[in-house]
Amino acid sequence: MAEGRAAADHVHATMRIALLSVVGVVQFGLCLRRLVEYGHRPEWLAVAAFTALSLVTVTCGVWVVRRKPLPLGVVVVGTVIVLAASAAAAAALPPDGFFRDPHWSFGLVGWHLLLLLLDRVPVLLTVLAVDVTANIVRFLPVALVERAEVGAVGTVVLSSVSVQLAVLMITEMLRRRTRQAMEVAAERDRMVTRVALAEQWEQGQRSVFAGQLGVTLPLLADLADGVLDPRDDDTRRRCALAATQLRRLFAENDDVPDPLVHEVAACVDVAERRGVEVSLAVSGTATPVPADVRRDLTGPVVAALSAARARARVSVLRTDKEVRVAVVTDAGVDVDAAAWPRVEVDCGTYGEHVRMEARWRRTSR
User: Fold this and answer.
1) Distance CA 337, CA 353 (A)
2) Exposure class string for 27-60: b at 16+ Cβ within 10 A, else e
């Protein structure tokens, strides 16, 4: 829709500049000479009609040269003046002057109407038909109704109107072609943007996976080389941490309505597979959270669940102002809050339980 309006505005602005030139050349280069050479009675009426048409041309030029649409008021008043000037010019013609050289206003009026109503095609066609019909009605009572006379008048009317209708058809064709070209260009730009975003996302994912594998691979190498003992509690905790981090990372790529809860549930699933009894509570409606912020929000959950021995409780709270992810486990874990710079991390010990909470304030984005 926006491309269509832009295309129409561009074509109409360009065509109006051409029409302004045509009106100026026709009126002052051709019609002025015919007005002066042939007698009109009363002469002041013909001069007034010519002056009124000139004022319409100049007024339209104020907007046309700046490639601005004509205001509705200018269009309405200008159309009324043009029709009145056409009637006045016809009234000042000698009886044998209709559709001949003395009839300087016929044809010129059509160019003025094109200039005014180029972007209002139904109204333009109606007004053109009214002007042509009015001139023909004035011509019939004073003309000798002969086949040759009627044929000559028909030729004049057809030649004049057909050229103006051809300009109108060309304008509409250019508008459609321009709209199609703009739509193709806009779609191409959107495609380029999507490709760039996809490449950026892919590069980011590669960096994240590379960083995670950079931590996991040495652990796997030490296990394979026998440097670490799988029965050792610290080794098992490190393995649990790596497994939970990878599982959460894989969940980040899933297309789901609520990514944050989906990633937290993935961490819970890994803990439950280790035999930990985990309860998950979610409150509040889903809210958009950037991927990097979700990584920081789930970071404490990953660390705490990987150290849990038998029980854990995870809660997710979303409000209009903030998002909180908290976890309570039955085992302590050393954490570095600086590892998650995008969120605020609180940690406290309550008897045999440790509570960790990550909080992200939406207003801080």
Assistant:
1) 19
2) beeebeebbeebebeeeebbbbbbebbbebbebb
Phi/psi of residue 101, each to 5°?
-55, -40
CA 338/CA 344 separation, integer angstroms: 9
DSSP state of 28: I
pLDDT tens digits, one per residue of 35-73: 877 766 788 888 898 899 999 999 999 998 888 888 999
277, 312 contact by CB (below 8 A): yes
Strands across the sheet containing 322-329: 277-283, 311-318, 322-329, 353-361, 344-350
Instruction: Please tell me the predicted confidence (pLDDT) of residue 362.
Output: 78
| 155 vs 152: CA distance, rounded Å | 5
Q: What's the CA gap between 216 and 239, in Å, rounded?
A: 8
Question: What Cα–Cα distance (Å) separates residue 295 from each residue in 190, 213, 289, 348, 349?
Answer: 29, 16, 10, 21, 24
User: Which three-class secondary structure state does DSSP give residue 362?
Assistant: helix
Domains of the chain, CATH where assigned: 2-187 (no CATH), 229-364 (3.30.565.10)
